[in-house]
Structure formats: structure tokens, C-alpha cells
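Project outcomes to date are best conveyed with an example. Our students and postdoctoral researchers have been running inverse folding experiments weekly, and each run begins with a structure described purely in C-alpha cells. The record below, which covers 303 residues, was selected by the lab manager from last quarter's runs and is presented without edits.
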């Protein structure tokens, strides 16, 4: 009996899966900590703006938008760093650095993710759309700021905090001072945790000419990061008072303070692996604050 020729479909299927895995790595879906660090403050804004009862569609749009825009930000970051990632031990296996993806593929993927995010935001009001454009611009320029701005982490923080004024605009039609206070707290927080991240790459960054707050702060880096963390907690405490959040929220801030003490114990010796663990631990801070907000609204005393 004659044997049938082996179908090419399994090979094509395996190649398709391999390509998808490459794009997933380019979007950094295998390392979701960045999604959490963007999602938690966005949800703070969604819950506070909705007084504990956020609009379901706004919630859906913002969660999906976080995943899309963080992924798009990782893609454009790798595109901008495609010629230097190969010179850094921690990033040399990224898809553009190791040649498994091309710059053209990265740009197409970035455009596709951005268009999907745009489609979501077009379902919201005009003010939210304008803020989304500002957030997208910050996402686009951040990777290139590392070439000329001594503190590019400020741009990163501004981008990561934009979900808060957007949430207030989407649910209330305006942006109160409380929203900007929370945004400022997120900027401070992002500078702190991304400095921890940059401390792990300081020697490589200095050698190849990449700027960061870890280089800017020099030997004062540990002290400055600790002061930024303290300022962040004080800003959240003030915001909680303005929003009339109760004991649950204050307990969440106390837990956050303990987590930050743990982070200090990790990054104070400037050991790269420990600095990365301290950076990653920050998503628990975001989760704790969010839990405090939800519980404060859920168990608020009757008016």
C-alpha cells in the first residue's frame, strides 16, 4: 500500500505557534509585572472615580487598554533599543536583539496594538480620548528619552499614571485635583521602582550611553529611592483623606510601608539580582492599595 505524503500542515502549525511565541515575548507577556504596575494605579482611579461602583464598560475598556498599551510600549521600547539590547547581559535574548524578530515586524505589531487600543478608547468621551492621546505620546517617546534625558523615569511615571485622570474623565466628565494628586503619587512611585530596575543595569547603561535615574542619583541612589517611597506613601495618605477612604485603606498603606521596607533591604546593597526582586515586589504594593480602596468602599459605614 502506497504511503501518503506527509502533510505540511503540522510544520506550518508549529511555525505559526513559534512566531506567536516570539511576538508574545516582544510584547513581554511572559513577564507580566509591567502589566500589574500599570493596571493597579489605573484601577485605583477607576474605583475612586466610580465611588466604589465603577461603570462596567469603563472597567472593561481600561483593563483591556492596560494590556494593549503596556504591550505596545514594550514593543516600541525594544525597537528603540534594538541596537543596544545585545550589549546588555539581561536583555540580549530579546527578540530584536537575538534576531528572531525584525524591526519591521515590531513596527507592524506596535501599530496593530495601538489601533486596537484606539478602537477601545473611541467608545469613551472626548476628554478621555484627548488624555489617551497624551498617554500614547508619552508611551511612544519614553524609549527615546533614555538617550538625552537624565531622568527618563519621570516620563515613564507620567505615562503609567495617565490611567487615573482618564478614569475620572470617563466616569465623571471632569478631572478633579484628587485625580492629579493620585497621578503625581504614581509618577513618584514609578521613579522609585524604575530606579531599582535601573540599578541592576547601571554598569551596562553607563558603558553604552543610556541615561537613567540610577546613574543620575549616583551614590545617593538608595537614600533618594527611600525618600521617594516615603513621599509616595504620604501622597496616598493625603489622597485617601480627600477621597474619605477609611480604616481599610490606612491598613493597606501600612502593609505597603512594610513591603517597601522589605524592598529597601533588597536594594540597599545594590546587588543587581536583589534590585530586580525589589522592583518586582512593587506590584504587591499596588495590589495592597487597590484592596484597601475596594474594602473601604465595600464596608463603608452607612451615610
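After processing, the design step wrote out the following sequence:
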Amino acid at each position: 500500500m502506497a504511503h501518503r505524503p506527509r502533510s505540511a500542515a503540522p510544520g506550518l502549525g508549529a511555525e505559526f505557534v513559534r512566531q506567536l511565541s516570539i511576538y508574545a515575548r516582544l510584547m513581554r507577556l511572559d513577564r507580566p509585572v509591567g502589566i500589574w504596575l500599570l493596571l493597579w494605579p489605573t484601577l485605583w482611579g477607576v474605583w475612586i472615580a466610580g465611588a466604589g461602583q465603577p461603570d462596567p464598560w469603563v472597567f472593561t475598556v481600561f483593563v483591556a487598554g492596560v494590556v494593549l498599551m503596556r504591550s505596545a510600549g514594550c514593543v516600541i521600547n525594544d525597537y528603540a533599543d534594538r541596537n543596544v539590547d545585545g550589549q546588555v547581559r539581561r536583555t540580549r535574548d530579546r527578540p530584536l536583539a537575538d534576531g528572531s524578530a525584525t524591526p519591521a515586524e515590531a513596527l507592524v505589531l506596535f501599530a496593530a496594538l495601538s489601533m486596537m487600543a484606539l478602537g477601545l478608547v473611541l467608545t469613551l468621551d472626548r476628554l478621555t480620548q484627548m488624555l489617551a492621546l497624551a498617554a500614547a505620546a508619552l508611551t511612544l517617546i519614553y524609549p527615546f528619552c533614555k538617550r538625552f534625558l537624565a531622568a527618563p523615569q519621570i516620563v515613564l511615571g507620567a505615562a503609567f499614571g495617565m490611567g487615573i485622570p482618564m478614569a475620572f474623565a470617563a466616569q465623571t466628565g471632569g478631572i478633579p485635583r484628587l485625580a492629579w494628586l493620585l497621578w503625581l503619587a504614581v509618577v513618584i512611585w514609578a521613579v522609585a521602582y524604575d530606579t531599582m530596575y535601573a540599578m541592576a543595569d547601571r554598569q551596562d547603561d553607563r558603558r553604552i550611553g543610556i541615561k537613567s535615574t540610577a546613574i543620575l542619583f549616583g551614590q545617593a541612589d538608595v537614600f533618594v529611592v527611600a525618600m521617594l517611597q516615603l513621599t509616595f506613601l504620604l501622597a496616598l495618605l493625603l489622597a485617601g483623606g480627600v477621597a474619605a477612604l477609611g480604616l481599610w485603606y490606612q491598613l493597606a498603606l501600612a502593609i505597603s510601608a512594610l513591603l517597601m521596607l522589605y524592598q529597601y533591604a533588597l536594594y540597599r546593597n545594590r546587588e543587581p539580582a536583589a534590585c530586580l526582586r525589589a522592583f518586582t515586589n512593587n506590584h504587591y504594593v499596588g495590589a495592597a492599595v487597590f484592596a484597601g480602596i475596594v474594602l473601604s468602599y465595600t464596608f463603608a459605614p452607612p451615610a
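Residues 1-8 have pLDDT under 50 and may be disordered. The CA atoms of residues 179 and 261 lie 27 Å apart. The training component of this project remains on track.
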